[in-house]
Structure formats: C-alpha cells, structure tokens
Design a protein that fits this description.
Oligomer: homodimer
Number of strands of chain A: 5
Structural class of chain A: alpha+beta
CATH architecture of chain A: Orthogonal Bundle
Helix content of chain A: 25-40%
Chain lengths: 146, 146
Amino acid sequence: MNAPVSTPTSAPALTKNQSLVFDVLDRADAPMSAYTILDRLRDHGFRAPLQVYRALDKLLEFGMVHRLESLNAFVACAHPESECCGKGHGHGHGTVAFAICESCGHVSEFHDHEVDHRLGDWAKAKNFKPAKTTIEIRGLCGACAA
Amino acid sequence: MNAPVSTPTSAPALTKNQSLVFDVLDRADAPMSAYTILDRLRDHGFRAPLQVYRALDKLLEFGMVHRLESLNAFVACAHPESECCGKGHGHGHGTVAFAICESCGHVSEFHDHEVDHRLGDWAKAKNFKPAKTTIEIRGLCGACAA
DNA sequence: TCAATTGCGTTATGCTATAACGTGTGTCAT
DNA sequence: ATGACACACGTTATAGCATAACGCAATTGA
C-alpha cells in the first residue's frame, strides 16, 4: 500500500508522503527547511527528518521542487508548465535562477537564456562538463527595498 | 597582543588566526569545510569551530576567501590581484562564478561580465536590489571527464 | 512464486553553524 | 593617565541541516 498513486491530473504519480511535502511547499510563500516541513507534517504522521528528505529527493528528481543552496531550503517550482526544469523527460528550459529577498523571504524564479549560453560557452571552452548549475541572487525585492 | 599585525606586503593586516586559516585554504587544492580547517589547525592551538568561523567571516569580508554555497565549504580567492572580489575598498569586478569538479574537487573561479550584466538587467527590471550573487556550476572538469 | 525494486518507519549519528559568556589588548578622547 | 570603546580571542553549550544503517511492506515482472 505504499506505491505511488496516479492522480487524474499531471506528471509523475506521487506517493502520499511526496504529495504531503509538495503541498506544504506549494502553499508556502517562502522557502522552507526540511525541518520546518517536518514540523508542519507532524499531524499527518511524520516523525523523522528522513521522511521529508526522501520525499524531497524524489520531488527534486521530478523537477517539482528546487533546492536553494544559499539557504539550505526548498521551494516548489514556480512554473509547473509541463516539463519544467530540465530533467523530466522532455527538454526543460535550462538553468533556473532565483532572486531571494532577505527581508520578506519571497523567491522569484526566472530563466535567462543568454546567461545559460554564456556559462555554457565558458564550460565548452574549458572542457568542463556541467551537471547542475546554481544561480542565486540575494538582496531586497522591490516591495521591501521601497 | 591580539591585534592585527601589519605585514610588509599586501592588503588588510591579518591576525594570527586569520593568517593560519587563510594559509590552510591557500595551500589546499580543493575547497575545505570549516571543520576540516579546524582539524588542520589543532596543532596550532585551535580547539573550537568558532575560532575558524570567526576568521572565515573576516576573510570573506576582506574578499580573500569565497564560500561555496553548494558545498558548505570555503576556498581562497583565486586572483589576489589587488582588490579582488568586490568589496575591498576599490571596485572589485563584480560577481564571481565557480566551476566545481565533483570528481577531483578542483574549483575554477571566473568572471563573466555579460552574465553580470544580464542578471543586473533582470534585477533592474524587477526593481530587485542585489546584495550578493552566487553562481556555481557543478560537473566534471576537463581532466576528469576525459 | 520468487527476486528485485521501491517506499516507508525508526534509531542513531554526523556535519555545519551560532549563541552567550567572559578575557585580554590595543585606541583614543578626555 | 584613565576610562570608554572596539575588537580579537577562548570556551562551553546548543541549534540546525543531513544521512547511515537497519528492517518491514507492497508492487512489479520474469
């Protein structure tokens, strides 16, 4: 009784734990640490960090969640349109960048093809084979800077 | 007897602890965690993580060391030429990017003005005020990919 | 049916980072 | 000089992030 359950709607079928973790992240308006997610899910039977980390690993693999390296925290992917962020099966659309407001915590996810291109060129010139690229801008969002 | 000691040579005068930490990083051929640095310096009287973290904080502030967010580790700045990386007093030269080999651990530090420019444009358009930008490419270096 | 795979739960542990306290030492305005 | 201040330092304790290693249950498919 622990296998993924296919939903009427979208992409890869999520297990119960994966759904719970994703829903928490998707409803959040700021990144959450694994332990914060754990606390949110105690009422649903979560007791240990591994339950969260295992779900997160899968969600990351599915491209439904991003990890913010500079925060050790996680966010739901902001543009669920089909194969969002690179691996799914489809094409994805390259590296995603994040602008993180240090005041309100809000995160904007965006993509810049030219940036991708420049970093790709550098890699090619150096014979470096990129696996995963992290771009995170920390600062103040428009609302908070005002 | 705990004040910075001015050296004949370069930039900001470092205290004993700061020098020790910097030397360890500078001699390393891969990023080091704070705790690894601590272990390297036990023989020099280091006993606690804070001794390392405090030194690192200053070295980061001086722009002599970079933190790799995706690794929770630190490297000495690769181009010590004068005011390296942004804050010193001088101008610096914008955001630095890192290519991190997941096989041999080697880190290449580089700068791409166009990438800076594009990210700056995005920020301007969104009215976002950047404070610090992280760019890290993980993958395989030329030598290891071969 | 049986082996392989995957998800799950639990306990224990390890790694990363900082809080809070007190000490000593230089600087400098008074 | 002296006292206020800033800063580096040392120590203990604790907080926060992540994974190892064990075993069980269910699904899949040869």
